[in-house]
Amino acid sequence: MSRPIHRFLGSGETLARLQDHAARLRRLQTVLEAALPPQLAEQCHVANLKDEALVVTTRNGAAAVRLKQMLPSLLEHFLRAGHALGAIKVKVGTPEQLPWRAPAVERHISADAKAGLAGFAATLPPESPLRESLERLIRRGRE
Question: Name one Pfam family in it (predicted).
Fold first, then answer.
Protein backbone atom coordinates (compact mmCIF):
# COMPACT_ATOMS: atom_id res chain seq x y z
CA MET A 1 0.00 0.00 0.00
CA SER A 2 1.48 3.33 -1.00
CA ARG A 3 1.08 6.59 0.90
CA PRO A 4 1.72 10.12 -0.31
CA ILE A 5 5.12 11.40 0.72
CA HIS A 6 3.69 14.61 2.23
CA ARG A 7 2.14 12.48 5.01
CA PHE A 8 5.63 11.35 6.04
CA LEU A 9 7.24 14.78 5.70
CA GLY A 10 4.95 16.26 8.33
CA SER A 11 5.33 13.38 10.76
CA GLY A 12 8.74 14.14 12.32
CA GLU A 13 9.81 17.44 13.86
CA THR A 14 12.95 17.73 11.73
CA LEU A 15 11.15 16.83 8.53
CA ALA A 16 8.33 19.22 9.36
CA ARG A 17 10.83 22.07 9.80
CA LEU A 18 12.48 21.15 6.52
CA GLN A 19 9.13 21.11 4.75
CA ASP A 20 8.23 24.53 6.21
CA HIS A 21 11.59 25.97 5.14
CA ALA A 22 11.19 24.60 1.59
CA ALA A 23 7.67 26.04 1.37
CA ARG A 24 8.94 29.44 2.52
CA LEU A 25 11.73 29.36 -0.08
CA ARG A 26 9.14 28.59 -2.78
CA ARG A 27 7.03 31.58 -1.66
CA LEU A 28 10.12 33.81 -1.67
CA GLN A 29 11.00 32.60 -5.18
CA THR A 30 7.50 33.59 -6.36
CA VAL A 31 7.88 37.07 -4.84
CA LEU A 32 11.35 37.43 -6.40
CA GLU A 33 10.08 36.46 -9.86
CA ALA A 34 7.24 38.99 -9.58
CA ALA A 35 9.68 41.78 -8.67
CA LEU A 36 12.14 41.20 -11.52
CA PRO A 37 11.93 41.75 -15.27
CA PRO A 38 11.25 38.43 -17.06
CA GLN A 39 14.74 38.18 -18.58
CA LEU A 40 16.37 38.60 -15.20
CA ALA A 41 13.82 36.49 -13.30
CA GLU A 42 14.73 33.37 -15.23
CA GLN A 43 18.39 33.81 -14.28
CA CYS A 44 17.86 34.31 -10.52
CA HIS A 45 16.91 31.67 -7.97
CA VAL A 46 16.37 31.75 -4.23
CA ALA A 47 19.03 29.53 -2.71
CA ASN A 48 18.45 29.88 1.04
CA LEU A 49 17.16 32.02 3.85
CA LYS A 50 19.32 32.16 6.94
CA ASP A 51 19.15 34.67 9.80
CA GLU A 52 16.74 36.86 7.81
CA ALA A 53 19.28 37.13 4.98
CA LEU A 54 18.02 35.87 1.63
CA VAL A 55 20.64 34.25 -0.58
CA VAL A 56 19.93 34.53 -4.31
CA THR A 57 22.05 32.84 -6.96
CA THR A 58 22.40 34.03 -10.52
CA ARG A 59 23.61 32.27 -13.64
CA ASN A 60 26.29 34.80 -14.50
CA GLY A 61 28.07 37.90 -13.30
CA ALA A 62 26.04 40.30 -15.42
CA ALA A 63 22.81 39.15 -13.80
CA ALA A 64 24.43 39.44 -10.37
CA VAL A 65 25.48 43.05 -11.02
CA ARG A 66 22.00 43.96 -12.26
CA LEU A 67 20.40 42.29 -9.23
CA LYS A 68 22.75 44.10 -6.82
CA GLN A 69 21.70 47.40 -8.37
CA MET A 70 18.07 46.52 -7.62
CA LEU A 71 18.62 45.47 -3.97
CA PRO A 72 16.99 48.49 -2.28
CA SER A 73 13.81 48.18 -4.35
CA LEU A 74 13.82 44.38 -3.91
CA LEU A 75 13.99 44.70 -0.12
CA GLU A 76 11.04 47.09 -0.27
CA HIS A 77 9.12 44.72 -2.58
CA PHE A 78 9.66 41.80 -0.20
CA LEU A 79 8.52 43.95 2.74
CA ARG A 80 5.32 44.91 0.92
CA ALA A 81 4.73 41.22 0.17
CA GLY A 82 4.95 40.43 3.89
CA HIS A 83 8.51 39.10 4.06
CA ALA A 84 10.73 41.31 6.21
CA LEU A 85 14.31 40.61 5.20
CA GLY A 86 17.44 41.97 6.82
CA ALA A 87 19.55 41.63 3.69
CA ILE A 88 19.77 40.01 0.29
CA LYS A 89 23.04 38.35 -0.64
CA VAL A 90 23.74 37.79 -4.31
CA LYS A 91 26.02 34.98 -5.43
CA VAL A 92 26.99 33.81 -8.87
CA GLY A 93 26.11 30.17 -9.25
CA THR A 94 28.35 27.69 -10.96
CA PRO A 95 27.40 26.97 -14.56
CA GLU A 96 25.82 23.65 -15.34
CA GLN A 97 28.48 21.11 -16.08
CA LEU A 98 27.77 18.36 -18.54
CA PRO A 99 29.38 15.06 -17.63
CA TRP A 100 32.56 14.43 -19.56
CA ARG A 101 32.42 11.63 -22.07
CA ALA A 102 35.35 10.20 -23.94
CA PRO A 103 35.09 10.76 -27.69
CA ALA A 104 33.77 7.81 -29.63
CA VAL A 105 36.49 5.56 -30.95
CA GLU A 106 36.43 5.15 -34.71
CA ARG A 107 36.92 1.58 -35.72
CA HIS A 108 37.98 0.76 -39.22
CA ILE A 109 37.27 -2.52 -40.97
CA SER A 110 39.26 -3.50 -44.03
CA ALA A 111 37.52 -4.61 -47.21
CA ASP A 112 38.83 -8.16 -46.70
CA ALA A 113 37.45 -8.27 -43.14
CA LYS A 114 34.07 -6.99 -44.36
CA ALA A 115 33.98 -9.67 -47.04
CA GLY A 116 34.83 -12.36 -44.48
CA LEU A 117 32.16 -11.14 -42.06
CA ALA A 118 29.59 -10.96 -44.87
CA GLY A 119 30.41 -14.53 -45.88
CA PHE A 120 30.05 -15.75 -42.30
CA ALA A 121 26.79 -13.81 -41.80
CA ALA A 122 25.37 -15.44 -44.96
CA THR A 123 25.79 -18.88 -43.37
CA LEU A 124 23.66 -17.91 -40.35
CA PRO A 125 19.85 -18.23 -40.27
CA PRO A 126 18.05 -15.06 -41.51
CA GLU A 127 16.39 -14.30 -38.13
CA SER A 128 19.59 -14.81 -36.13
CA PRO A 129 20.49 -11.89 -33.82
CA LEU A 130 24.17 -12.54 -34.57
CA ARG A 131 23.53 -12.20 -38.31
CA GLU A 132 21.69 -8.91 -37.76
CA SER A 133 24.56 -7.59 -35.64
CA LEU A 134 27.19 -8.62 -38.18
CA GLU A 135 25.26 -7.00 -41.03
CA ARG A 136 24.92 -3.80 -39.02
CA LEU A 137 28.67 -3.88 -38.29
CA ILE A 138 29.41 -4.31 -41.99
CA ARG A 139 27.12 -1.38 -42.91
CA ARG A 140 28.59 0.94 -40.28
CA GLY A 141 32.22 -0.08 -40.60
CA ARG A 142 34.60 2.38 -42.24
CA GLU A 143 37.40 1.35 -44.46
Answer: DciA
Report how far residue 109's alpha carbon sits from residue 97's, in angstroms, rounded to the nearest whole number. 35
Given a cut of 90, is residue 35 above it in pLDDT? yes
Cα torsion through 124, 127, 132, 133, rounded to 10: -80
Closest CA to 81 of 73, 91, 69, 70: 73
Q: Which domains does the chain show, CATH number per domain?
A: 8-92 (3.30.300.180), 111-140 (no CATH)
pLDDT confidence band for 48 (50 / 70 / 90): very high
Return the HEC string of 81-104: CCCCCCEEEEEECCCCCCCCCCCC
